[in-house]
Amino acid sequence: MALSQRYSAVAIALHWSIAALIVIAFGLGLTVDNFPKEIKGAVINLHSLMGLAVLVLSLMRLYWRITHPAPELPRSMPPVARLASHAAHGGLYLLMIAIPLIGVPTLLYRGRGLDFGLFQIASPFERTPDIYRPLTELHELASFALIGLAVAHALAALYHHYILRDDILTRMLPPRRPS
Ligand code: HEM
């Protein structure tokens, strides 16, 4: 396959590291109440740091996507499938950026700050349930929408690979070494 028909190494690295971070952040977010009380704060902090990493990497990915156009879709793809693909990718970018942004006030209005290891940021706010409860619900709802969209996105990639047998999935995988 010609180089221009594949995603670049940067796009591939960003794609798979963001995907892994989202899965772990989502899992930690949903299970945080099951951890012992003594480590709950550390789990929320880890969740928040991973979520912030998703935000930073997604902004980098968006910048890279704008400055390095994606390889073209197969000519055989019908217009409705192209539209669905563009809408799903747009929705993924939107949620990958919006969810961490909602997460920040969700954390700070619990009166919790962030511990980056080398330095800490204290919350400037009092613990305010009237604010953090609806924010937590919005944060959770948007996370389920993101996971739903990501599952649909992955199923579409598998459909292309195993049923349509085109190169949509392989061009987002690291290139195989020639045997
Ligand atoms: C892609 C990134 C993220 C995803 C997928 C995600 C997902 C989730 C989910 C599913 C929950 C559980 C909500 C519930 O059960 O009510 C949650 C809770 C939470 N998230 Fe996130 N989150 C992300 C980023 C962030 C960020 C960047 C922050 C803060 C800087 C944050 C702060 C919180 C807080 C404070 C909670 C409540 C934890 C608790 O129950 O005490 N999240 N998140």
Could you please describe the fold and organization of this structure?
- The protein is built from 4 helices and 2 strands, in the order αααββα.
- By secondary structure, it is mainly α.
- It has a single domain, classed as Up-down Bundle (Fumarate Reductase Cytochrome B subunit).
- It has a two-stranded antiparallel sheet with strand order 1-2.
- α2 crosses α3.
- The longest helix is centred in the last third of the chain and has 36 residues.
- The model has no long low-confidence stretch (mean pLDDT 95).
- Bound molecules: protoporphyrin IX containing FE (HEM).
- Protoporphyrin IX containing FE binds next to α1, α2, α3 and α4.
Task: Please outline the helices and strands.
Blueprint: H1 9-31, H2 37-67, H3 79-108, E1 114-115, E2 120-121, H4 129-164
Antiparallel strand pairs: 1-2
